[in-house]
Write a structure and sequence with these properties.
Largest sheet: 6 strands, mixed
Structural class: alpha/beta
Strand order of the largest sheet: 12-7-5-4-1-13
Number of strands: 13
Order of helices and strands: HEEEHEHEEHEEEEHHHEHEHE
Distance between the termini: 85 Å
Number of helices: 9
Length: 292
């Protein structure tokens, strides 16, 4: 065999192998990046269309749990300080006479972050609406209470806002800690448990007072306000108990509606398609009203 042909074949194989690595690089890195950019652009387009249709500043606070993983290990998403920073920035930048719509899809999160968002939303002078296409539990429910109107899918859910105290071993409902303490003598409990019990008392008092502050404009009837607080804070339900749209309306009244805009469902489909933790949980497109 001609040595020149052998050498040519070897060079061609090496060139093909080099090109294969380039193709693999493109498939592994460039294609997902292009897909992310496309999805982000599509979300912005839907947000802009929804904002224009409703005449509002639309903000998303969306935490997808089912598609986020690293090496097959699920990574939980929840309301954190980074989220509160972004949402507060969006609310602060919204024009004072423009309504705000927040699309919520979250299991909850840090009480501090949720409280910051709720109080910032409550202080906005124009109408505030929270839209819940699927669920807004715990801290998400706290934020929803701060809105003038809650629009829920008929089968969407809010959840209890009773405080949870946790450590490396897990989270413990504050109401359960107090219930256990009532059944034991002080000398039967260790110091750590006693500390938890004391923190549970403080946490419950704080969340009740916070809810009264959030609901004061929504519930002029003191008895009705206390009923809402009892249902959502007292610990009579588990922390993942769902308050469906019908339940929420029975407690909160006509401020709870079920006419979720179709654009919201379209938006949720765009979040479901994307993989990876780099996807932002908070997005918004500023709406600027022309001044005449």
């Amino acid at each position: 065999m001609d040595p020149t042909l052998v050498q040519t074949g070897t060079d061609a194989f090496s060139s093909l192998l080099g090109n294969a690595w380039i193709i693999i690089f493109v498939l592994l890195f460039l294609v997902p990046m292009l897909q992310r950019n496309y999805l982000q652009a599509e979300r912005k387009r839907v947000l802009a269309r929804l904002g224009k249709a409703r005449g509002s500043q639309v903000i998303t606070l969306i935490h997808r749990q089912e598609t986020i993983s690293f090496l097959g290990i699920p990574l939980a998403r929840y309301i954190d300080i980074e989220d509160s920073e972004k949402v507060l920035r969006a609310i602060r930048r919204a024009q004072k006479d423009i309504p705000i719509d927040i699309i919520l899809h979250t299991p909850g999160g840090l009480a501090l972050a949720a409280t910051q968002i709720a109080m910032a939303l409550k202080s906005h002078p124009a109408k505030k609406t929270v839209i819940v296409p699927h669920y807004a539990m715990s801290g998400g429910t706290l934020i929803a209470f701060a809105a003038d109107q809650i629009i829920m899918d008929q089968h969407a859910a809010l959840g209890p806002v009773d405080p949870q105290l946790g450590d490396a071993q897990g989270a413990y409902p504050a109401t359960s800690l107090l219930a256990v303490a009532e059944k034991k003598k002080i000398d039967e409990m260790d110091d750590k448990t006693l500390v938890y019990v004391e923190e549970a008392r403080k946490a419950l008092a704080q969340i009740r007072e916070l809810l009264r502050k959030i609901l004061e404009d929504k519930c002029s009837d003191a008895a009705r306000m206390e009923t809402i607080i009892e249902e959502f804070v007292s610990g009579k339900y588990t922390h993942d108990h769902p308050f469906m749209a019908e339940d929420a309306r029975a407690l909160l009244g006509d401020c709870v509606q079920t006419d979720v805009p179709e654009e919201v469902y379209s938006l949720m489909e765009l979040y479901r398609m994307e993989m990876g933790r780099s996807r932002p949980g908070v997005e918004y497109v500023p709406l600027v009203r022309d001044r005449k």
